[in-house]
Write a structure and sequence with these properties.
By secondary structure, this protein is α/β, with parallel strands linked by helices. Helices cover 51% and strands 12% of the residues. The chain has 10 helices and 5 strands; from the N terminus they run βαβαβαβαβαααααα. β3, α3 and β4 form a beta-alpha-beta unit. The longest helix has 17 residues.
Length: 229
């Protein structure tokens, strides 16, 4: 079944790095490397052809950089997850990556178990972002959106399937960077129930992961400046 084996694409202009990621991830049960790209344009084309579950995307690549490639992929295939692979934890760059549609990032020199964990977390709809950083980035994104309301052409349509009042509450908590455990505690529900709500929200918003659900919520105005933390 398609959801048992998750299909990955590696996009990096360094052959040795791709080979390292391939050998690391190929040994993981439930993961299959289905394609490799050496620049952003190739990554977009491979995703069109193979429709993978997740792309590990380098930021700096020839012909088309990783942020532009992410934007293109997410525009055409919103269900494809993108995990940015970067050398530097630069908040400005990461904010741009989130706006482009990335689920989060992993550092190139991260330990092997952290990289594998980030891949699995993203595929499971969880955020691979450090929570403190996620909160900071989402807050900045919300502030920027409030300063510059979108033009009518860029305004996003609300989701086709309306959110229930409870889902709207959960979504608002997502925009503050809360984990499922924290959402459960805030709303006095079980962690399993919080997870189900998050999964439904992701599906209704037509996004690939919780990070992008939070970004979409900010675009739709689900956060308010006085909504707490």
């Amino acid at each position: 079944m398609h959801d048992e084996i998750k299909r990955l694409v590696l996009a990096d202009d360094h052959h040795l790095l791709r080979r390292g990621f391939r050998s690391l991830l190929s040994g993981e049960p439930g993961l299959e490397i289905v394609g490799e790209a050496s620049n952003g344009r190739e990554a977009v084309e491979i995703c069109r052809r193979l429709d993978p579950d997740l792309v590990l995307m380098d930021v700096r690549m020839p012909e088309m950089d990783g942020i532009t490639a992410t934007r293109e992929i997410k525009r055409e295939q919103p269900g494809v997850g993108v995990l940015i692979v970067t050398m530097h934890e630069n908040p400005d760059y990461l904010l741009e990556a989130l706006e482009a549609g990335a689920a989060g990032y992993v550092l190139k020199d991260a330990p092997a178990d952290r990289l594998i964990s980030a891949v699995h977390r993203t595929l499971n709809g969880e955020s691979p972002l450090n929570q403190e950083l996620a909160t900071q980035l989402l807050r900045r994104l919300a502030e920027e959106k409030q300063k510059t309301p979108p033009s009518p052409s860029k305004r996003r349509e609300p989701p086709g399937d309306a959110l229930t009042p409870r889902e709207a509450e959960v979504l608002q908590l997502l925009t503050t960077g809360q984990t499922n455990q924290q959402i459960a505690q805030t709303l006095t529900i079980s962690k399993g129930t919080a997870k189900v709500h998050v999964e439904r929200i992701i599906r209704k918003l037509g996004v690939s992961d919780r990070t992008q659900a939070a970004v979409r919520a900010i675009e739709l105005g689900f956060t308010s400046s006085d909504s707490g933390r």
